[in-house]
Design a protein that fits this description.
- Strand 5 (about 120-125) and strand 6 form a beta hairpin.
- By secondary structure, this protein is an alpha/beta fold.
- The strands form 2 sheets. The chain has a 5-stranded parallel sheet, with helices on both faces.
- It has helices spanning about 15-25, 30-40, 45-55, 60-70, 90-100, 110-120, 160-170, 175-180, 195-205, and strands at about 1-5, 30, 80-85, 105-110, 120-125, 130-135, 150, 185-190.
- It contains 9 helices and 8 strands.
- It is globular.
- Helix 4 (about 60-70) packs parallel to helix 5.
- The protein has one domain (about 1-205): 3-Layer(aba) Sandwich (Rossmann fold).
- The protein binds adenosine monophosphate.
- Adenosine monophosphate (AMP) binds near residues 35, 155 and 164.
């Protein structure tokens, strides 16, 4: 199955994608994770992407599309894919339709007023890459799953979050209309317990 998770930053796409990709047996492909790994490896793509990511802006389509094209050509994508964070513009969606069109698009819907506290409280484990909300951590610095050290993403600061939400509304939200027109859009309420959202996603795919 070829699947896309749409939704604003902080909607829970990454967390849900990890569970759903394991359930469906398709690779979880997060363009945000790919960029962060390219930045830490100091590749040309990482060096190009860093200034946009730090500013909360979208990385240019040409860079992002080239990276995804290469990733989708890999063997593990023969079974399908679960794309998390791509496409984020109509131009990217058109490119994806040419590379390998999705079967379904799940829009995980969370109101803006809930996103700010989700994003400013988000912590990532440097070791197992799990995502947690600070309110759920017994120790604000330690991963409850593997004991690794947790950190806050540099783009999860309030001033950068405002720019990211603006980019979402201006550039990414139009994809809801794009995929509705193609009859591929499924909408799920993301403002709920993790397990409930997971069940709703699977039900939307039946
Ligand atoms: P994410 O982890 O999905 O929130 O992505 C983190 C950042 O990476 C975004 O704020 C963008 O700067 C960049 N990024 C990720 N995916 C894309 C994309 N499809 N198009 C452009 N920029 C992206």
């Amino acid at each position: 199955m070829k699947l896309i998770f749409l939704g604003p930053p902080g909607a829970g796409k990454g967390t849900q994608a990890a569970g759903v990709s394991a359930h469906l047996g398709v690779p979880h492909i997060s363009t945000g994770d790919m960029f962060r790994s390219a930045i830490s490896n100091q590749t040309p793509t990482g060096l190009e992407a860093k200034r946009y990511i730090d500013a909360g802006q979208l990385v240019p389509d040409s860079v992002t599309i080239a990276m995804v094209r290469e990733r989708l050509a890999m063997d593990d994508c023969k079974a399908g894919y679960l794309l998390d964070g791509f496409p984020r513009t109509v131009e990217q969606a058109i490119a994806l339709d040419e590379i390998s069109a999705p079967d379904a698009v799940v829009d995980i819907d969370v109101p803006d007023e809930r996103l700010l506290s989700r994003l400013t409280g988000r912590r990532i484990c440097g070791k197992c890459h799990g995502t947690f909300h600070i309110s759920k951590l017994a120790d604000a610095h330690t991963c409850p799953v593997c004991g690794g050290e947790v950190y806050q993403r540099s783009d999860d600061m309030p001033e950068t979050i405002a720019t990211r939400l603006k980019a979402y509304h201006e550039s990414t939200e139009p994809l809801i209309g794009y995929y509705t027109g193609l009859g591929k859009l499924r909408r799920v309420n993301g403002d709920n317990q993790l397990e409930e959202v997971f069940k709703a996603i699977l039900a939307s795919l039946e």
